[in-house]
Amino acid sequence: MLSNKRKKEIISLKQKKFRQRYGQFLVEGEKSVCELFNSNFNITEILLTENYFTKSKIEFDKSKILIISEKDMKSISTVDTPPGIIAVSNFKDLSLNLKNLENKITLVVDDISAPGNLGTIIRIADWYGIENLICSLNTVDMYNPKTINATMGSFARVNVFYRDLSEFLNKTKIKKYACVMNGNSIETINKQSEAIILIGNESKGISSKLIKSTDLKITIPRKGGAESLNAAIAAAIICHKFVFG
User: Fold this and answer.
1) The CATH number of the domain where 20 resides is what?
2) Which terminus of the chain, N or C, has fewer Cβ atoms within 10 Å?
């Protein structure tokens, strides 16, 4: 049975300060919850409505199941149409070892403010087999429910770190590419086995301080009149070029 005290704690996980206090976050929907089962995240509770539980064919860990009312599901859920299943998971304890970035492509994002954009970038990284994403300290929280929902479960396979990017970029010897408006065309880039790709804020781009810490400025060629590309779209185009050439 879900106590009122615990229900209030779970509802509070919609806010960053409480996620950080409890070290936990919400995962909504069957697909994303099932991704947790095959990950190294530690699930503490699986909340199900009676209707969902009776119809589901998934084999759940019964020690973690809590059947809750439709009303409670609606109050806990962050989406307009509650999914009938929500998992509560502990944060993943990660340690960034620069050696683990060698012979790999790594995405780095500077000041991404929209949760949906960050979630989509995590999903893109997963699509292209990129294991690690390094975020600036002022990038939106990866455990924001909107971010988690936008990943469509990919958060379970991509390691996300928050670091001082200036310090990080100056420490790594891997070649660093900055995605800017006026750089070398990505058409000149061949398939890469090792690289650091830096993507900037949706409106401001990459800070000038960070650009100075990179090795090469690159640009996605433009034919039309659009002023810029969405950060996630830019990340997808560049990742495709670096991964497949």
Assistant:
1) 3.30.1330.30
2) N
